[in-house]
Design brief:
The protein is built from nine helices and eight strands. It has 296 residues and is an alpha/beta fold. It has a domain of 190 residues: Rossmann fold (3-Layer(aba) Sandwich), CATH 3.40.50. Strands 3-2-1-6-7 form a five-stranded parallel sheet, sandwiched between helices. A three-stranded antiparallel sheet has the order 5-4-8, with no helix packed on it. Strand 4 and strand 5 form a beta hairpin. Helix 1 packs across helix 6 and helix 7 crosses helix 8. This is Phosphoadenosine phosphosulphate reductase domain-containing protein.
């Protein structure tokens, strides 16, 4: 039984033709799957290798490592890499643009430039705003684009002649994230939305039915976008990583690029002073776990 309802139309949200085996423009088309190690990108990867994306198999699968992912993400990515190598003869290409955690430490200590995470900034009046998010661009997008050029045999600054279709694991419940590419030799593709019409729960169900388990949300250990439930889960079950986030939370207060004080938590309070109610038993935790909604 399929875990998705395939769309009948032939055009995506951007009005362009969807992923195809052949194109009539006479140009060479390359398909690259951007793999994040989380729920949606895992489902997309496995569906793609089964030929469910209009029969097109991605030419490359690329994972960009920020250097500060939770250990369970690294374990999961290695597990999936072994699975697809054994079953399909395909492997994930690993790339990186440095370690975001180490770069935060360096910036706090010596004022070195930092690609900002979306820290919460509290000014002298106690008002809280959010810093500009540059981390995705510099630790995910830039290294993936650089790796694509390398895989295609291009030197820096050489013009890419192929049209590269970059597949992203965005599901229908994240429709606001569907955006066109800003790179002139790329076309952003969203197969879970435009072809398979899958939401996050369908992605989880598909991966679970393959017997691989439930993939958790992929994000940096100290990502300011974490909600309280995720911080709570980390504190309860991955205390070493939570303590590391507390350490970095204290360091970001010294970042020179902000006029106010930076925090990892939206309250504008130190992470180790927040009550996440981790000592209380919550029936919703068990319900969520049973339904497979532990993370993205």
């Amino acid at each position: 039984m399929q875990a998705f309802r395939r769309r009948n139309d032939t055009k995506g949200k951007d009005g362009n033709e969807m992923i195809q085996k052949e194109y009539s423009d006479g140009k060479k088309h390359i398909h690259v799957l951007s793999y994040g190690g989380g729920t949606q990108s895992t489902a997309l990867l496995l569906l793609a290798l089964e030929g469910e994306i209009n029969g097109v198999i991605p030419d490359f699968i690329i994972f960009s490592d920020t250097g500060w992912e939770p250990q369970y993400v690294y374990d999961w990515v290695l597990k999936i890499n072994k699975y697809i190598k054994d079953k399909y003869g395909k492997e994930i290409v690993f790339t990186s643009n440095g370690n975001i955690r180490d770069d935060i430490v360096k910036s706090a200590k010596n004022g070195k430039r930092l690609a900002s995470m979306p820290f919460f900034i509290k000014n002298k009046n106690g008002e809280i705003g959010m810093a500009r998010r540059q981390c995705t661009s510099e630790y995910k997008i830039l290294p993936i684009n650089r790796e694509i050029r390398k895989l295609l045999g291009y030197k820096p600054k050489e013009r890419v002649k192929e049209i590269v279709h970059l597949w992203k694991g965005i599901s229908t419940d994240e429709i606001q994230r569907v955006k066109p590419s800003r790179v002139n030799w790329q076309k952003a593709e969203h197969p879970l939305v435009d072809i398979l019409n899958m939401d996050r729960s369908a992605c989880i169900a598909y991966v679970e039915r393959l017997g691989l388990g439930t993939p958790a949300k992929s994000s940096c250990i100290g990502c300011p976008f974490h909600d309280d439930e995720m911080w709570r889960e980390m504190k309860l079950h991955n205390r070493k990583e939570f303590d590391d986030a507390v350490k970095i939370d204290k360091l970001v207060r010294n970042l020179p690029q902000f006029e106010g004080k930076a925090y990892l938590h939206r309250s504008g309070k130190p992470l180790d002073e927040i009550d996440f109610q981790e000592n209380q038993m919550d029936i919703d935790m068990f319900l969520n776990e049973c339904e497979g909604f532990c993370g993205n």
